[in-house]
Write a structure and sequence with these properties.
This is RNA polymerase sigma-70 factor (ECF subfamily). It comes from Mucilaginibacter yixingensis. Residues 28-90 form the RNA polymerase sigma-70 region domain. InterPro entries: RNA_pol_sigma-70-like, RNA_pol_sigma-70_dom, RNA_pol_sigma70_r2, RNA_pol_sigma70_r4_t2, RNA_pol_sigma_r2, RNA_pol_sigma_r3/r4-like, WH-like_DNA-bd_sf. By secondary structure, this protein is an all-alpha fold. The chain has two domains: 4-90, RNA polymerase sigma factor, region 2, helix turn helix motif (Rna Polymerase Sigma Factor, Chain: A), CATH 1.10.1740; 114-191, Orthogonal Bundle (Arc Repressor Mutant, subunit A). It has eight helices and no strands. The radius of gyration is 19 Å and the shape is elongated. The termini are far apart.
Length: 193
């Protein structure tokens, strides 16, 4: 029997697509604890967190053949966040979390999303060009250079709160900008069936 613990996530995903239960168990054992901690930080409810993790892995098992998952870790974390936000939106969970500002980010886009990564990068680039220069600089420092808000504030000699406000305004604007394109894609997808 091969040592699945030595396999990369990509190899495990290929085996999982073939219905390999041992590969699934290895993926689960590598990731469940970190995903549980992510869920618990937001929900503060052990049973609800277990349900979220169970649903994410059940979806992975049931739908892995349909999906082209390029990077397993971001996919699983995005799936957990999506399940949590769905629970909160439906009112099935109390919003016991306050997400730290440093954790707020645009979710990574998976290969099986509506927009291809290249198209998304192009749209974000077009949107960035419309921002004031200072906000553009702060956004790039945070999301391209991966600097903390504290480091940005020190480099630009402005308060951390100003940096956070600029980023919050940027993220809000970006979501609105991209939602316009997603709406168009959904409508086009509906009429092209």
């Amino acid at each position: 029997m091969p040592a699945y613990s030595h396999y990369s996530d990509n190899v495990l995903m290929l085996l999982l697509k073939e219905g390999d239960a041992i590969a699934f168990n290895e993926i689960y054992s590598r990731n469940w604890q970190q995903l549980y901690q992510t869920a618990y930080r937001r929900l503060k409810d052990r049973e609800l967190c277990k349900d979220v993790i169970h649903d994410v892995f059940a979806d992975l098992w049931n739908k892995c053949a349909e999906k082209d998952i390029a990077d397993l870790q971001p996919y699983l974390h995005t799936a957990v966040r999506y399940k949590i936000y769905t629970l909160l939106a439906k009112g099935n969970a109390a919003p016991h979390f306050v997400e730290p500002f440093e954790d707020m980010a645009v979710s990574p886009v998976m290969a099986d999303s509506w927009l291809e990564a290249d198209e998304l990068e192009r749209l974000i680039g077009l949107w960035l060009d419309t921002l004031p220069k200072k906000r553009q600089q702060i956004f790039k420092m945070r999301y391209e250079e991966n600097l903390s808000t504290k480091a940005i504030s020190e480099q630009l000699n402005i308060s951390q709160k100003t940096v956070q406000n600029q980023l919050l305004n940027s993220i809000s604007g970006l979501r609105g900008y991209l939602s316009h394109y997603l709406t168009i894609l959904i409508i086009l997808g509906f009429f092209n069936k």
